[in-house]
Design goal:
Blueprint (H helix, E strand, L loop, with lengths): L1 E4 L5 E5 L3 E6 L7 E7 L13 E4 L4 E4 L5 E2 L4 E8 L8 E9 L5 H9 L7 E6 L6 E8 H9 L6 E6 L5 E7 L18
Parallel strand pairs: 10-13
Antiparallel strand pairs: 1-2, 1-5, 3-4, 4-8, 5-6, 6-8, 7-8, 9-11, 12-13
Helix pairs in contact: 1-2
């Protein structure tokens, strides 16, 4: 099931006829969602650029403005990106130097998030307390944010929560010795 929301995040429609739904989820990257609707489906009128969609109560995505494409089955195809990409819309203008002794990782993340024009994101948790110094010049907030984690020792993961607003962002240590939460099962989810 695909829920469709307007720019104010109010649910305006449920696309029951959505098919060919696929999510591309890569760790520490922007996720993507693809789906199709029959060409004559009345819910196509709600699939406007930069409106939001949610698949099965999961993460929130925004519909990307692209040329309308119709597949061989006569369906409208939509590409959506995770709302984390809204941080690309804002830029750190000028030159910024943040960090060093006494300034911890959470404070640097908060510095970047404070430069949002619309406060969509807030810091939830940060498992790191490093004191690195960072420098950015004319950089998008998302690029600056991802560069904060690059010098960290050990595996890490950016975790989002888009069920509440403002959306929450966390930088978590990745436990490589824990039990997996997802499994590949024969003939079920092997692709």
């Amino acid at each position: 099931m695909i829920e469709i929301f307007d720019k104010q995040r109010r649910r305006v429609a449920i696309a029951e006829n959505a098919h060919a739904i696929s999510e591309q989820e890569r760790i520490n990257a922007v996720w993507y969602l693809y789906f199709s609707l029959p060409y004559k489906d009345p819910k196509n009128e709600y699939c406007k650029p930069f409106w939001y969609v949610r698949h099965n109560g999961g993460e929130l995505y925004r519909i990307m403005p692209s040329q309308l494409s119709v597949d061989e089955a006569g369906a409208s195809v939509y590409q959506c990106e995770h709302v984390l990409a809204t941080l690309i819309d804002n830029v750190l203008f000028g030159y910024h130097i943040v960090g060093n002794l006494g300034v911890y990782t959470a404070e640097v993340i908060q510095y970047v998030l404070n430069h949002q024009l619309t406060k969509n994101w807030m810091l939830d948790q940060c498992d790191y307390r490093n004191q690195f110094e960072y420098g950015w010049e004319q950089e998008s907030l998302l690029s600056a944010l991802f560069s904060i984690a690059s010098p960290l020792a050990g595996p890490y993961m950016w975790v989002t929560n888009t069920l509440t607003y403002p959306w929450k962002l966390s930088l978590k240590r990745l436990d490589t010795k824990g039990r997996p939460e997802m499994y590949v099962r024969r003939r079920h989810n092997m692709t």
